[in-house]
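Entry 0007
Protein: GntR family transcriptional regulator
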Amino acid sequence: MNAMKWNDQTPIFRQLKEKVVELIMDGEVKEGEAVPSVRQVAADYQINPLTVSKAYQELVDENVLEKKRGLGMFVTDGAKEHLFDEEKRQFLQEEWPRIMVRIERLGLNLEELANRAPANDGENS
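Output (structure tokens):
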């Protein structure tokens, strides 16, 4: 895991959990692979091991990570698909309605927005 800047507005365990989710969704940590130990993460980020444990436990409760006794924590099979499904659900139920209200308030239409969207070819527009 890379260096992290902690946001004072969100509990550290939640930020750490989100970082692990990002790593899995981006394919940097694959299904079946181990995640760094609680002790290692606590030492690397100079945070309380209980904070790391809480983040990992939430991921275990959500079937994203699994404990293998004596071996550590591993990403479960199907975790990436589960995370994408959950992220899509959250976006469509929580974020998209707010975005649509803002779009309507600004008098924009979807065609206009589509024409302004940056191309996915890596060039800056």
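Curator remark: The first helix runs from residue 12 to 25. Strands lie at 65-68, 72-75.
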